[in-house]
């Protein structure tokens, strides 16, 4: 607690420095007020302060010194303070704890300028003037050591600036540096006497908050910081908005070591960003559980294909009351955790670059299974954005069809709108090549992501799939009815078919048939089927589906 930002405190014999001359010896009480009597005897005028400690030494950092004083026990070594370690000729103070008093010896000996400057540079960020990562690590270790075994608590906050990179990229690094300086000042303006701010790197800051009332105190400080960053910054006459996301951890509940606290606050920061940024989030044990589960899944996912833990289910879709094909749906059965939802593991596989390999396996499995179906049945296979944007996709698909022997017109590839965010030449070439090969292309989940009518004009689609979001309340919601009717008319006007997903009732099916929807897919037709059940389903499909659908 004695390493302070503008007033560097040094402990131990290695940093003790003999005073060659003493200007004055002054006494102050525990509240830093002047002391006139010592043990009932009036002090000599030479050691009697004329004002409070802070008035005598106005240039010192009050908040940092208050933290240092609070940690001084009667047996503690004296505290050596330099008023300004970066200024040549700065004088020093040596402070002793004597019972309920502080004895202050002011030295006339100048500090070694070069040593003090190097020390300051080694422990402070030159851009913002805040203590740096090295100083933060030392301080956090010291603070935790001093609070161990006591009733004292402290909170650690990690702060990331939201949308800092766009400012840095568009206005230049000089503007980015000014923004970091302004941000550091705004953080310091929110701090109390027993709070300390640090800059770790880039746009990453931390705050160590001491004193009583944690974690509530830390939450109030975090709210104040978030509110402060909602106000705009002005850089070279340009107004910019940069918020902050904050993760909070508290010792000892969330950890008693620097590593534990940093991990906890980092998880809380991740949660704050995931919830929408520009907010603070406190660590919760469930965050660690989720992280551990996520890492377990990530490690297991890398072995799942080799361990044959993936399998494919098939959900049929119908046209004019008849089954015309199946959509292949990837599934994962974890040996310990059971079935893992695709919404959980597919983003992981995409992030780790595994989807091209997994997607190739799904495509081959689906094509081989489709070879067992009637020749007029098609198989729909999802292609993730990560897989679609991988070079060589069309060659791999073509090779798979040749290997299995499935005609290209029996394969329908489903892509989502996220693939089309970049209207690159490569994207257009890929879709056109697939179209030339005779492979059908379906735009999946239409209307729920980044819908743009220009997609329908630019890219060659055969089918548009209406997301179940619009189908669920189709019977009662006029807005959903209007949207679905418009999509059907639009698709037909562009010579495309329409598939409605999530059809569960005969009333929905009847409404969709009346507006001209071509295909229906959902629980009304059938739930996804294991591969073993497809043969029997196909054998009774004609009568059962005609009976279920209007």
UniProtKB/TrEMBL annotation:
Residues 294-542 form the EAL domain. Residues 152-285 form the GGDEF domain. Transmembrane segments: none annotated. It holds the Pfam family GGDEF. SUPFAM superfamilies: EAL domain-like, Nucleotide cyclase. It comes from the Bacteria. NCBIfam families: GGDEF. This is Diguanylate cyclase (GGDEF)-like protein. It comes from Rhizobium esperanzae.
